[in-house]
Amino acid sequence: MRCNIRYIEDNDGLDYWCLTHKAKANVIDGQRPSCCDCKYKERYKNIVEMEIEDIENIKIIYPNLNKNNNVKIYINGQEFNGIMKLESSIIDLKDYGGLMLSKLNNIELKASKCPYCGGMHTDNGMFAYKPHSEHLCIYCGHFYKVEEANIGNELALYFDFPNIDLEENAVSIDEKCEVIYDLFTGDLFVNNISCQKVQVNNKEIDVVTFLNEVLKNEY
After folding, report:
1. Does the pLDDT value for residue 197 go beyond 90?
2. Which run of H or E residues covers position 98?
3. Cα(191)–Cα(65) distance, rounded to whole angstroms?
4. Residues contacting 185, CB < 8 A, separation 6+
5. Hey, which residues does 75 pair with through a beta bridge?
6. Is pLDDT of 43 > 90?
7. Rounded to whole angstroms, what are the CA distances from 159 to 43, 128, 135, 172?
8. How high is the pLDDT of residue 29?
9. Which of 94, 106, 119, 169 suits a disulfide with 124, CB 3.0-4.6 Å?
């Protein structure tokens, strides 16, 4: 799907927003942008409408975070190669990872509605674990403020996802770092092991701190 770039006047320094891909667009050489920053544009070619009652399981897999932050989504046991439309929400790849980070950090997710367009708010990357009172609407690109700092995720409006429980293990990720998260069970595995620590170059790092850092720019 082609970018639909919109100019947003008086918007705290963010001038252009892509309504198609829910992403900012940067001015290059003083010219109005024709393309946004979304790295998953090709996935938006396939938007699939789904019913809440038809979704029995959602699993996300990062095959190797040592190499890149590419993610695979599995819904009801089948790889899902597209963007999901769930009632009035468009759920893209960043939104699943954002939910994982929020649950890892024991964040109580709040419903937040944009006063400009009425879209519900989802926080990803570093914003998924750092409560904040100024939000960027992913649907219209406007900044808006709320009275109490919070974090939102649209998926959590439709499902009551369990907390993530990690066992007191440590696993080496020197050679490979595969992360698998089952949203409906709360199971999270690093290299097929539930662990509170990961080992990198003979040093142990809290797995929450590690994933926060690796995925902080996925927004």
Report:
1. yes
2. helix 93-104
3. 11
4. 162
5. 58, 78
6. no
7. 23, 17, 22, 33
8. 85
9. 94
**Tens-place pLDDT, residues 65-110:** 999 999 999 999 999 989 999 999 999 999 999 999 999 999 999 8
Residues in the chain: 219
Over residues 166-189, the pLDDT tens digits come to: 999 999 999 999 999 999 999 999
Closest CA to 142 of 156, 121, 126: 121
pTM of the predicted model over 0.85: yes
b/e burial code for range 44-53 (CB count within 10 A of at least 16 → b): beeeeeeeee
Q: How far apart are CA 178 and CA 61, in angstroms?
A: 7
Strands (E), the chain: 5-7, 16-18, 23-24, 47-50, 58-62, 72-75, 78-79, 83-86, 89-91, 132-136, 143-150, 170-172, 179-182, 188-190, 197-200, 203-206
**Neighbour tally for 36: CB within 10 Å:** 21
Containing 157, the helix (H) or strand (E) segment is helix 155-158
